[in-house]
Design the sequence.
């Protein structure tokens, strides 16, 4: 009886894990096949071709959109790290009481997600003095705000994994200035966690669509918007982009895991 | 475990200096953590701050290190008033309770940190690091990542790092408390031997009275932010100044002598004759008690529990309503339920008050 | 203390940035929703109660409830399976895949589902030829299938740490005392997991409630949900009405704020439970 229950348990376990894998991988696998398919209206495609991929990689607009997505994502992540690392350093070392304020800012985007953030931003920045709506100059800060909670979690986890205060004291007792401690110890120690979180945030920012569509739309087209326009013209090319996007997400996810070996999944709240 | 001393290490670069705290007080949110502490660590001496958790030991040490600014009083290192000198300019070596090793640096990187900060050239720096690794018995570990070391090894790295820049004084905050019992006892001896060889003035914080007693030249017993007694381990044990010291340092049976008549007192519910003593609270060390299997007079107790300790044995006795502890040689065998006499020499009654 | 000054200067810049691009938009929403040219008004909020918008709210709530429940149930079972699995490679692969898929939403995901379940999707072909009902992915009732793609792995990732807090030796101890594993889960496992389970479900609800990209990419907004209505009212394809957009945004923010409060409550409940377990 005992043996029986163990078997049922392991069957259930395999069943549920198999179901998840099937659910997550089937759409990607079928989309991959579709991107190579000639015409597919029965069980199997009529034939295979590299046409969709060729068209995709031959399209200068694709490269331009990808480049813009990269610029947008990298700027947003760089900006949040540039802000977060010194801020967390200052708060941990000099003003621990301000930590809750920073946490408040990191929770706010949960209540005002992309769509409604865009609504507010468009209203503020459509008129002078700062009429930057419709330009990347508004899109990049907006994406920064949206990925900030992820970046904040990652950076603050990295700061919590070392005892900044005690390390700074150890350094000071050895005669070093705070700057030396920051440059030689604190920064190198938090770097893996920061990079790992930064890569995850990069992945999220790269695929950001709501803000791109509402704030700039076709005026400054990014990759998701390019795919959105492609959907109605050429399904096979769109399929290729889906596969590419999953590949990029997977690659960045693996990279993040490598960088922050052993660190947990980062959630925004 | 052996400690080898390179010739150069023993020639201390400078004369040892004293640490003097005068009327030191520190408050947190109006509550005193340290109150009116006067103490002097003499040049070359190892002085321990001993007391229960929360009594203000760490706060005192942090004031000396420069991480806390005292609310009142002053601190001198040698002749210099350092009360307002920032920590990075005090030239004190500090070992933290959790070592606070720099996780991104190798063993050598940690040990050489203070020298790098001071701008030593590479050659001199490497030589000095090698010297220190030899002193603490970590030769060959220079390239190791500190996160892969055992607790005892980390402790040694922390010590080497603190000593490398030739600090004027050494501060240790519970340096051994994070270690396993066996390593802790080993390192105790090793640390003390090293301190004696280097002759560096050392202030050690611990809540472990055995550690304080075995390592120190003198011990400061603290309680609730105040000093209870300063003295050599021998003084504290033989003549505790307060009931707190008596019960905190070593084991002690504490009793009240109640008046009955001329030189007669009621102790643990029994009447005994004790010439030359007065009414009041007294303490008796367990080893000052002799157990008499065939009692004729004096205190009597019933054996409750006998614990064999190798060199001797501990006997727990019920005397009236009280529990007494005696520590006696192994040659007599006591059994549970046996009635014995407790013989205590007149000089063994320690007055507490 | 140059460094102190420099880091505080950057922190100050950060504060300014956040106020300008994060806080101010929220405040502006409130102002736009509650004023017109004449001053304070409730007309936008009243407009937000017109049938079209109420249906959108209703649809969003039901879709989010459904996808949160499905995700929570399957994700919890999956996390449990991972917890009890002894195969380290399967564990780390599924964990990594969950982490990636939980954040994989938007246009690429929508199109992948079109390939499977669109008008000429291959799965639908298989369904038709096996006489099974087909799934029209462009219909609102079927949207939850797409949302499940990120909700299921998200719940798995959220529940894994909670399962990690259950020591496997507890189960052995319970067995040793003669308790069945059903009894163990009922009396020990579920109570330990419950706060995280509830909190994560709320998170899933919020995740779906504010989701815009996937459904927009799928339907260009023809599916009537709260986020798509809000998008409509500002991007002006159908009607341009910033007042209504702001009012609807406030409704959404209020729901999400309630979710956040519930989530935080569940977190501190879980922490209390853990500290009691340690004591
Ligand atoms: N940074 C601080 N803020 C507030 N109270 C403190 C702080 N540091 C220590 N205390 C309090 O001061 C008292 C003495 O602490 P400490 O010196 O750390 O004790 P010990 O090292 O003897 O255990 C304790 O009651 C402690 O709670
Ligand atoms: Mg302490």
Sequence:
């Amino acid at each position: 009886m005992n043996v029986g229950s163990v078997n049922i348990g392991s069957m259930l376990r395999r069943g549920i894990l198999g179901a998840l894998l099937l659910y997550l991988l089937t759409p990607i696998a079928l989309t991959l096949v579709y991107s190579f398919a000639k015409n597919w209206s029965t069980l199997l495609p009529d034939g295979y071709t590299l046409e969709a991929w060729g068209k995709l990689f031959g399209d200068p607009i694709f490269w331009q959109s990808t480049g813009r997505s990269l610029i947008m994502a990298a700027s947003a992540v760089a900006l949040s790290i540039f802000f977060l690392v010194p801020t967390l350093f200052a708060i941990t070392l000099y003003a621990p009481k301000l930590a809750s304020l920073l946490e408040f800012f990191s929770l706010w985007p949960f209540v005002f997600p992309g769509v409604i953030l865009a609504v507010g931003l468009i209203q503020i920045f459509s008129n002078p003095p700062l009429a930057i709506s419709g330009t990347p100059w508004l899109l990049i800060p907006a994406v920064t705000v949206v990925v900030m909670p992820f970046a904040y979690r990652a950076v603050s986890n990295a700061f919590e994994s070392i005892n900044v205060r005690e390390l700074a004291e150890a350094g000071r007792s050895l005669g070093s200035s705070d700057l030396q401690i920051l440059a030689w110890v604190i920064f190198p120690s938090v770097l893996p966690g920061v990079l790992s979180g930064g890569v995850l945030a990069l992945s999220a920012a790269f695929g950001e669509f709501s803000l791109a569509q509402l704030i700039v739309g076709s005026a400054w087209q990014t990759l998701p918007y390019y795919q959105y326009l492609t959907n109605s013209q050429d399904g096979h090319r769109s399929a290729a982009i889906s596969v590419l996007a999953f590949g990029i997400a997977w690659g960045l996810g693996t990279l993040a895991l490598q960088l922050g070996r052993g660190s947990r999944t980062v959630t925004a709240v | 475990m052996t400690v080898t001393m390179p010739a150069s290490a023993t020639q201390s670069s400078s004369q040892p200096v004293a640490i003097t705290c005068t009327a030191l007080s520190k408050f947190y949110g109006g509550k005193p953590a340290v109150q009116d502490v006067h103490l002097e660590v003499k040049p070359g001496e190892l002085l321990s701050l001993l007391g229960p958790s929360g009594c203000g030991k760490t706060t005192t040490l942090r004031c000396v290190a420069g991480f806390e600014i005292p609310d009142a009083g002053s601190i001198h290192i040698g002749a210099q008033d350092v009360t307002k000198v920032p920590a990075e300019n005090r030239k004190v070596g500090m070992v933290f309770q959790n070592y606070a090793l720099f996780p991104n640096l190798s063993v050598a990187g940690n040990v050489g940190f203070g020298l790098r900060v001071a701008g030593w050239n590479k050659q001199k720096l490497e030589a000095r690091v090698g010297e220190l690794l030899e002193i603490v018995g970590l030769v060959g570990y220079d390239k190791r990542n500190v996160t892969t070391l055992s607790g005892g090894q980390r402790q040694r790295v922390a010590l080497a790092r603190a000593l490398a820049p030739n600090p004027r004084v050494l501060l240790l905050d519970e340096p051994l408390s994070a270690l396993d019992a066996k390593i802790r006892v080993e390192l105790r001896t090793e640390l003390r031997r090293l301190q004696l060889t280097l002759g560096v003035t050392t202030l050690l914080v611990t809540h472990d009275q055995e550690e304080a007693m075995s390592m120190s030249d003198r011990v400061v017993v603290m309680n609730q932010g105040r000093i209870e007694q300063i003295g050599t381990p021998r003084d504290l044990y033989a003549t505790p100044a307060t009931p707190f010291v008596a019960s905190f340092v070593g084991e002690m049976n504490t009793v009240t002598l109640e008046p009955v008549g001329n030189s007669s007192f009621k102790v643990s519910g029994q009447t005994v004759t004790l010439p030359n003593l007065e009414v009041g609270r007294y303490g008796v060390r367990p080893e000052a008690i002799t157990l008499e299997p065939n009692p004729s007079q004096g205190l009597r107790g019933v054996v409750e529990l006998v614990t064999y300790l190798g060199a001797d044995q501990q006997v727990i006795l019920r005397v009236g309503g009280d529990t007494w502890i005696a520590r006696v040689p192994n040659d007599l065998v006591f059994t549970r339920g046996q009635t014995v006499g407790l013989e205590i020499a007149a000089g063994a009654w320690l007055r507490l008050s | 203390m140059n460094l102190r000054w420099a880091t505080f200067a950057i922190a100050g810049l950060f504060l300014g940035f956040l106020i300008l691009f994060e806080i101010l938009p929220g405040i502006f929403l409130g102002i736009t929703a509650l004023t017109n040219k004449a001053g304070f008004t409730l007309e936008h909020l009243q407009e937000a109660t017109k049938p079209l918008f109420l249906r959108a709210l209703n649809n969003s709530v039901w879709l989010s409830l459904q996808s949160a429940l499905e995700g929570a149930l399957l994700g919890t079972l999956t996390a449990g399976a991972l917890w009890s699995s002894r195969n380290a490679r399967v564990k780390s692969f599924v964990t990594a895949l969950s982490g990636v898929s939980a954040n994989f939403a938007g246009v690429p995901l929508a199109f992948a589902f079109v390939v499977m379940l669109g008008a000429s999707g291959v799965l639908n072909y298989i369904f038709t030829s096996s006489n099974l009902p087909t799934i029209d992915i462009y219909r609102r009732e079927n949207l939850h299938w797409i949302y499940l793609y990120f909700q299921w792995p998200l719940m798995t990732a959220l529940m894994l740490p909670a399962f990690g807090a259950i020591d496997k030796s507890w189960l052995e101890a319970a067995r040793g005392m003669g308790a069945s594993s059903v009894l163990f889960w009922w009396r020990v496992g579920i109570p330990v997991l419950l706060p995280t389970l509830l909190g994560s479900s709320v998170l899933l609800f919020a995740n779906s409630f504010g989701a815009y990209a996937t459904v927009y990419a799928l339907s260009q907004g023809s599916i009537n949900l709260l986020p798509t209505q809000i998008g409509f009212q500002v991007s002006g394809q159908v009607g341009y009405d910033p007042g209504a957009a702001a009012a609807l945004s406030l409704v959404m923010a209020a729901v999400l704020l309630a979710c956040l409060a519930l989530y935080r409550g569940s977190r501190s409940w879980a922490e209390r439970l853990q500290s009691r377990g340690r004591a």
About this structure: Chain A touches chain B at residues 162-163, 166-167, 169-177, 180, 184-185, 188-189 (CB under 8 Å).
